[in-house]
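Continuing the series of single-chain predictions for the mutant panel. This is the parent chain; the variants come on the following pages.
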Amino acid sequence: LQIKLKESENQINELEKVINFKEHKLINEKQQLENEKQQLENEKQQLANEIQLITKKIENAENLENEILQLRNEVDSKQKSVDQVNSQLATQQQEFEKLIEQSNEKQNEKQMQIEQLVIEKMQLQAQIQVQRSVTTDDDNNDNDNNNNDDDDDNNND
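Parent structure:
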């Protein structure tokens, strides 16, 4: 019986060693699995952070797209205003050019009138000059006659 007891104790010791070994192995595997679980949790959190960052970037991109659309609309609106102003300026430019042309025509007419008046003035001055010289000649003749008349008067006395 003692031998059997000894064998049983040996078997129990062997079984306890096996149990201890397997228990340590299970504890190590459990710890390794918990480490892997923690690592996966960390990766999951990192992915969630990246997803959040990407979502924010998408929102920012959408906001930028909206701003770009708004700016394009403003540019289109301002371009229409510019086109309208340019059209008005072109119309005003044409009207201004017509006015300049009319003014030039009137100025040319005035210049022609002035030239005509200068010619008429010169003609009148020439006529006046001629008349003065004729009148001066007549006056000289009249003076001569008057002088003669005076002489006659003196003689009659």
